[in-house]
Amino acid sequence: MLQWFRTLSLRNKLVLTILVCLVLPSIVSMNVSNFFTRDAVRSQVADSARQSMRITSQIVTGQLKNMVYMMNFIQFDEELQKPILSLGHVDETSTIGDIFQAKLTINKRISTVMNPLGNMNVTLLLPNGQYVASYTTINFDPKSFLSKDWMKEVNQIKGYNVHWIGTEFNYNSESTQPYVLAAAKPLGLNGTTYGYVIVGLELSVLQNLFAQYKENETMVIIDENGRILVDQDTSRIGTQFANFDQLPSEEGSSFVKVAGEEYIMQSNQISSNWKLVSMAPYKSAAQQIESFRKTDFLIQLFFLILFAIVLLYVVRTLTKPIAKLVQTVVRIESGQLSERSNISGGDEVGRLGYVFDRMIDRIELTLFENKREQELKRKAELAMLQAQINPHFLFNVLNSIRLKIMMKGDEENAELISSLSALLRMTINRNNEYITLHEEIGINEHYVRLLNSRHGDRVVLRVSAASDTLLIQIPRFLLQPLIENAYIHGLKSKAGEITIVSRIAEDGRLQVEIQDSGVGMTPERLLTLRNHLEATPTTSVVVEASSPSLSGIGIHNVFERLRMIYGLRFDYEIESNLGRGTQIILRFPQQPEKEV
């Protein structure tokens, strides 16, 4: 990671650092805020749920109180006491008119109180089998209540308590509701039960209330065993409440997990045996608060992005001149010395660009002057090499020609004089620094002819030059010092062969080879010669003239000229085997204008 960061540009490093310093505190702050506000949010959500539960519980409790009120009204209303007692004493002597009149009086009185209270089914059941019902009894006989299992528990009630039966099948054939929520109480007088009141509340009243909750929320009424008495889904009535074992031990709320999702569970005791239970997903209950926090996050994100855009623009404006300066440096490094940054301004970067351009101007001027000095130096070297023709050698050659001419007048001497004339003419003429390879080979043929005339030993010069190399321009007097070394130190001034080979190398450069059939060199002497040729001109290297090797002085001068002219595009090889001769291979560009 650190290595990757180091490879980034200055602009990217600056942007990345600022963004990290900007985004990281926001993320940390948000997480810390979530951590410290989580309990507060949960408490707020729980309070909101309890408030909603309290309202629902009051409505449900009100319905149950209406049922109790209806039963107490029948028990304690004075206007109902006489007709109820009269109906309870009906026997074989009672007329149908008396029975009808008593039931009619009871019905009217009950209807007066029951109608404002909602959808209730009220049954007044007397031990002698007489009854009064607020619903049609065509398909149902109220006397069947006496055989219900819960009637035993009703008979055990003392005082003015009520027995909450639970959910019963609806016995009102005119109603579309399949169930009613039922309760009953005995009617007693002086310790004697003279009747029973059974009140059934149709579940639609409570189901419509529960339907106000969302689909993923649950609102039910259960008994003490966890059996569902009221639910929006009628099919679940009478089944076991799935999360009964997770109910809070007391009235209140708790957080439970169901199928991996967190819920707020609340319960309120609405009767002695019944509880109102609600379950709501925590995420849904906290939606409003989460929406507020999400909005706050989006606002922060918007300003963060806006700041990042402004930051990128400012950083780009500040670092663009630096990037331009870097590009200019790269192009200059590749050899384009005419490139300039052209950066201006009054700040530090502007002054740096101005100073950099002026520095490149001075460097370019210095290089131009150095190049000019090198050209003058090469011309001076050429003049010096051209002047290195040994005057004694020329004197001795002329004397030899003179003696031969005196002794016999043949054409051979005429050729010698012609060769000497051509060699002197080329030596004296310094107008052209470069000549063709063909001309350079011709000069060396004249030179070898003069050698043979002076020493008497026949040195054979063999030339194998490719036709496409003959017109290539090469520095003047490039081969003469090498031929001289091959004759003096390779052939030991005796008869032998010297071969000149030229060809175009694979990389397009001219390759010239000079090989002799002389004594060669030992590996040690060859290594010494190579070290001498690689040494700087100021390095003092002593080479024994009597050693069986090339002297290295003339060769060193040739190699230094080629290095100055062609630079790194010039290279060479020297191979030698003792008793088998020495070979020198030169490689350099074909055209002088390709100098480095």
From TrEMBL:
<keyword id="KW-0547">Nucleotide-binding</keyword>
<dbReference type="InterPro" id="IPR003594">
    <property type="entry name" value="HATPase_dom"/>
</dbReference>
<keyword id="KW-0067">ATP-binding</keyword>
<dbReference type="InterPro" id="IPR033479">
    <property type="entry name" value="dCache_1"/>
</dbReference>
<keyword id="KW-1133">Transmembrane helix</keyword>
<dbReference type="Pfam" id="PF02743">
    <property type="entry name" value="dCache_1"/>
</dbReference>
<dbReference type="Pfam" id="PF06580">
    <property type="entry name" value="His_kinase"/>
</dbReference>
<keyword id="KW-1003">Cell membrane</keyword>
<dbReference type="InterPro" id="IPR050640">
    <property type="entry name" value="Bact_2-comp_sensor_kinase"/>
</dbReference>
<keyword id="KW-0472">Membrane</keyword>
<keyword id="KW-0812">Transmembrane</keyword>
<dbReference type="Pfam" id="PF02518">
    <property type="entry name" value="HATPase_c"/>
</dbReference>
<feature type="domain" description="HAMP">
    <location>
        <begin position="316"/>
        <end position="368"/>
    </location>
</feature>
<protein>
    <submittedName>
        <fullName>Two-component system sensor histidine kinase YesM</fullName>
        <ecNumber>2.7.13.3</ecNumber>
    </submittedName>
</protein>
<dbReference type="InterPro" id="IPR036890">
    <property type="entry name" value="HATPase_C_sf"/>
</dbReference>
<feature type="transmembrane region" description="Helical">
    <location>
        <begin position="297"/>
        <end position="315"/>
    </location>
</feature>
<dbReference type="InterPro" id="IPR010559">
    <property type="entry name" value="Sig_transdc_His_kin_internal"/>
</dbReference>
<dbReference type="Pfam" id="PF00672">
    <property type="entry name" value="HAMP"/>
</dbReference>
<dbReference type="GO" id="GO:0004673">
    <property type="term" value="F:protein histidine kinase activity"/>
</dbReference>
<keyword id="KW-0418">Kinase</keyword>
<keyword id="KW-0597">Phosphoprotein</keyword>
<keyword id="KW-0808">Transferase</keyword>
<keyword id="KW-0902">Two-component regulatory system</keyword>
<dbReference type="InterPro" id="IPR003660">
    <property type="entry name" value="HAMP_dom"/>
</dbReference>
